[in-house]
Amino acid sequence: MVRAVVFDVGETLIDETRIWSRWADRLGVTRFTMLGVLGGMAALDRSFAEAFELIRPGFDVEAEQEAWRLDDPEGLRVNFDAGDLYPDVRPGLAALRDLGYELIIAGNQPPQAYDALAAMDLPVDAVYTSDGWGVAKPDPAFFAKVVAVSGREAGEILYVGDRLDNDVLPARRAGMRTALIRRGPWGYLHAARPEAAHADHVVDGFPDLVAALGRR
Hints:
Keywords: Hydrolase. By secondary structure, this protein is an alpha/beta fold.
């Protein structure tokens, strides 16, 4: 029986459209181009970094982020705030809490993401990031940390994310139940793959997830 639900962040809780749109503006390409290239990387199982390299060969992401910080110290830049939450997240989390589930956020995120998530005052029991743990998905050690902080058996945990490679498949190998959420380019593309059958649930959003877990 599932007793704890653990959530990825990007394109599970957070709509990254504004982040990638700001990147497009920064790089001097249209937003359609930026989002299209990212979709291509998702379809080809390639990384975000390769999207930058394709748009601007030799691009140094870390150096550009630092220059951007100096240019716009008060701006969101590559960060997010409560305005980037998907609209169904807060009510969905509240509904899952009412059903008695322990709720945890744990995803691949930089240091500042913890403060941003904590400031949203979401109805969850804990927030963790890969930077805080010093290990990132899909490393098995990340999912071992999820089990450890939950205090549950792996089979009592449902991990929710938008990717097969980073979320569903490694969480399943760690003994967890899994849900694939069809949001963002990876979510839609991965839900159409045969491997999506390995997920316990494939959902279109939090209402579907609440309905599935309510039945259990």
